[in-house]
Amino acid sequence: MGSSMSNPTRDPSQIRSISARWIATAESSEVLENHILCIENGRIRAILPKTQFGGEPDLHLPTHILIPGLVNAHTHTPMSLLRGYADDLPLNEWLFEHIFPTEGKFVFEAPVDEAKEFVRRGSELACYEMLKTGTTIFNDMYFHGDATASVARQAGMKAVLTQAGLLYFGDDAAFSALVKQNVDFCSALAPDSHVRPSLLPHSVYMVPEEKLQEAKAAYDEACSGTHVVIHTHLHETKKEIEDLFAKTGKSAMDALDSLGLLNSRTVAAHCVHMTDDEIKLMAERKANVAHCPRSNLKLGSGIARIAAMLEAGVNVCLGTDGASSNNTLDMLTEMQYASMIAKGSTGDPTVLPAHEVLEMATIRGARALGLDKETGSLRVGKAADLVAVDLGSIEASPIFDPLGQLIYTNCRQVSHVWIDGRSVVYEGKVLTLSVDLTATGDESELETGLKLPLTPNAAISAQQSPAKAFRFLWKVDVGRIWALDCAGQSKLLTELLGLEAAHPPVARREIICDFHLFNLSHAKMLCLTQRQGAVFHAIMAVILDMMAGWNTDRDSQGATAAECFKEFQRLLLNHSVNDPPKRLMIFGGAQARRLTDYTSGTLFKHFLLYQFCARCERDVETLRFSVEVERPILPPALANARQKPSRRPQQTPENADDGTGASTEEKTAGGAGEDLSEEIQKVVEEKLRMTEARLE
User: Fold this and answer.
1) What segment(s) does the record annotate as region Disordered (predicted)?
2) 27 near 379, Cβ under 8 Å?
């Protein structure tokens, strides 16, 4: 990595002149070398060669390229809390069976203050990530926009959004109220605010024409004279196009055009499946396309005809989509994908060269949002929205074309970001936001309602959270833990899990440590993801808590093995069959069966040992015995067993849980849910008989 050598007498807020090895203005394909950019009152005052600058600049960046702040033209910032939540699924299944139900639980059905907290946390996480990767402006589509707007202002970022995306579920009064909320929100925004207004119909297939007309009329009346961006999803999949045509006899684009919603203020996200005539119409209406290549690929939606759009004169910009469908909000990576996919899909390596894809991520995005006169390129008089990217790593050397290295390598590092001349990222550190990653939601609590029972010891970190402690545990090479002697294993896990305070008796602690180590080992043997491992850990800790009666007096007998196993079955099923918000698809059917078999066998030995300690009349403080149980045979290299298990959901049950973990429909109707429930029930009955015999 290269280094930035700043004047030690200057703090980040006092930087007014920046010397960079290269400056890419996005005004042309030319890259300036060894120039200095000067800032005054938040704007670019001058860009001139070093030889014409008198004195020393405030900041030297000898291995960096300065570029305009990146513009994320389509995203859903709060959905960063759902990053990786439902991977490897087609759009309709991902959206209607996973995302909408989960958002229903945490956003639509939750109390307003809880919903806003969900949005705030997700927005903080997203803004932090975007700043770290060079984004200064984002065009957002979500709900409770006032919470996101507050975070954007705190971060110093510029945002285009409104109070809530428009969705219609058959309730006319509710839709009209939603439109009014949005109009009131947009009307209240100051003209020079960092937050600009938008009209957010999710899509034509989610908002019918008559409701689009209602929303447009309300905006036209209340926001005349204001540049209101029309932000919507358009032609993302073949299925949505076919379904809408079968229902209405027209395409979404025809509907938007007939209503006057296809114009220079329109930002249409995705546009994957476009005919020649539709591309021509987009160009004629001067509508903008927000290209989201990574999301389109990940959801299997297809490859947008970007080369044809550019040739027709369509203003194409770039967006990441949400982190739940892309998994990253890194616009540098989005640029790389956009360029390479365009070349590969056309067979023409000259399509979308580096300088043009940089324009898509900067000035063209600003143009789509009506901000191109203010920002989007490095021109004297424009806002000093700047990003410094370090190209000084060995992997980027030698540098024949700095723009090529910026776009095509993976070794670039955003080191500094300024917005309106204000330093918001300095030497890789975000200055305007301090995001506690653990405050964005304990993974297992978010998805299951089960809290990870980890109480981190001060030896780890006074600020360490249960979720972070588990993430640390998950990253540890389990083979190295097994290589320790019993005392070493106990010491490591006791400190990490904070067991000393919760379980003073040494013998009990040793059993609990062994218990958690077996959990970890088996989870990795099954190649569970970290999220699945966290949920499994939470479930098993609840069962152990139930068995041992940790929070009762020493005379408590705890639960029986049969009761514990029944509860385990219920919890496992609730996280193996997709029926949100009551149930969530965390484990696949095969994983659930293997976890059931494992738990019903090996772990019951831990339960018996713990009960012996808890019920023994002798002082357990002096009871010293080794825990001798069958230890799983670990694969020689867990790193070579990372193939991801299938996440294809099972059939969705309709009714609520009856206490056994399976609904009536699951027991009587066909489908994967029934098969899983019946098969696990058979295992349960067999193992319970064996366990009860051992207990006797």
Assistant:
1) 636-679
2) yes
Smallest CA-to-CA distance from 405 within 135, 89, 65, 108 is with 65
Please check whether residue 294 is in contact with residue 263, taking contact to mean a CB–CB distance below 8 angstroms.
Answer: no
Bridge partner residues of 64 (DSSP) = 390
| C-beta neighbour count of 688 within 10 angstroms | 18
Max intra-chain CA distance, the chain: 92
Each residue's pLDDT tens digit, 608-665:
665 555 555 333 333 333 333 333 333 333 223 333 333 333 433 333 333 333 333 3
Instruction: Give which of 575, 577, 512, 505 is closest to 545, Cα–Cα.
Output: 512
Q: Three-state SS for 665?
A: helix
Distance between CA atoms of residues 530 and 11, nearest Å: 40
Measured distance CA(587)–CA(109) in Å, rounded: 25
Sheet holding 135-140, edge to edge: 70-75, 135-140, 158-161, 195-199, 229-234, 266-270, 288-291, 315-318
Cite the DSSP H helix spans in 549-588.
Answer: 561-574
Q: What average pLDDT is seen over the chain?
A: 79
In tens, the pLDDT along 136-161 reads: 999 999 999 999 999 999 999 999 99
Q: All domains of the chain, ordered by start, with CATH? A: 1-68+375-435 (2.30.40.10), 71-374 (3.20.20.140), 448-632+663-695 (no CATH)
Q: CA 221 to CA 58: how far, in whole Å?
A: 49
Q: Tell me, what DSSP letter sits at residue 624?
A: -
